[in-house]
Fold:
Amino acid sequence: MHPLNHSHLPFLNLFFENSKERQPEYITPFGYIIYSELNPAKERVYLIIDISTFEYGKDFRVEIKMLAASEEKFKKYRDDENAIYQYHHNYLGGDTVQMLQDKLGPLAEDETYFVESNYHSHPNPMEHVYKLKAQDYIATLTEWFTANPLNKEYIHRLGNSEEDKEKVLALYNGGISGVLQCINLRDFRSYGYGEPRTSWSENQWFNKDFAALKDIVILSVTNNKSLLPEALDMIQGYPYLVELNLSDNNLDTVPPGLDKLADLKRVTFKHNNFTDMEAFAKLTQVHKLDLTGNFITAIPDDIAKMELLEVLDLSGNKITELPEALLQMKRLKVLNLSNNPLKQLPDWIGQMTGLEELNLQQTQLESLPESFANLKVSGRIYLKKNPFKELPAGLLDMGKVIDLEERNIALYNPKVKKKLASLPTGNIKMNADLNFKLMVVQRLMYEDELLLPKFDVYEFVKNHKGREIDLEEISYEMIPEVKAWFENLDIPLELLWDIKELRADGGDEIYHELIPHWDGEDDVFDVVSAEDVKYFPNLKKVTLMGNNKEVVKFLRENKIKVSFL
Structure:
């Protein structure tokens, strides 16, 4: 193994987001990286970074595993070179080690083999293995991960089935008994089940002893009835915490001490009960903040203090106006304000710079200020699902940056206006085939939320004036009254102009409105006629549940691509 030293620490830190002290140790004969650190019990543990690729120098896959949970257990790898070869043999399989030694020759002290992960399936596998100088290997990885920062969300190996608790680095919903014995745990995620949902403190996995797992990097505890103060108080004791997700927990207060966690970069508190974000604005170290689906009414001026913030998601709140302080956030790349009652935007919006994505979908906008055309966004600006009545002509110069329905593009683009003027308008029933219509309603009503209000079979039954409908008795059958409702539903033609793809899936909500307990196993919703595609000027692809040859032939004759589930 090629030894590493403290000078290689910048290279090692390419794989991490927190400030925990680590010691580079070795590069193994197959390009894996061994490093060590002290765990909460002050024991030195040795971990291995498993690196593979489909094309050396172009793309890499990374996973971290526990190699040895003590110095004593690591001795065999340090003292016996065959031990690390055996480790690689167990993971790479076959006679990889012997093959490389036979074909490429033994390694010099400063060399490493590198095996592309797809070499087994290649007719000439030796085209996919290399012998490299260790420093060249380090230089390649450094260049790649500097230019392409590693997504570290799932970098630690899942340990739900790991028998040796000392080696468990990641646990999802427990998975093994004695979770508190997993002293080296880095990534813990728990999703509450059942009704009523249990509180964190009532769950056997989450008691006061859990605070001892101080090396936690990612903590996700979601969908609980409540998180009691004692449980929330523990979080400030995780000094290396990078990501915290406490979504769907009925929270209205921020856990104490989060502003003191210097490594905390990603915070998600979706679908809780927050009415303001003053406490979150104090988290000046955070890079991503997601507060989707709360009851926040305003963005505070203090948001400007979050100078490192790159992603801000406030979709699904009650925000009515934007503070000019947003102009000071020079690192902000993604701003999601969708599904807020903004109704209008300030004139200064066009001065924002550095954005890669701006989402203003479903924000009740009827117009945009003229300055909006000056907005510089490198990616996309999402403006769909707004009742626009007028739009500035300058949007025409923004081109494909704007994501908007064609009927609204026509408000500023003369060519689109002329094109749409030739299309029929008004409402249609689309009665050629109810099942084809249901695909369309699924898209417009339950996905795009353009055909409102959404139909709810339980509300329908409750308010039905005809015969009494008992869903418990007939929930496995198609309800005639519901079928008739959808047959009589009017579809505005202008909502069809933007549809480029339709997709049917047995799990779609629409089918369970007609047959609440449909299991998706029969052909009751298979399309038998696609005649109504004539109303879709931009339809390019249809995914079907059944394979009616006449339907497939008809669609393909109309130059529509067909695929199947």
Notes: Residues 427-564 form one domain.
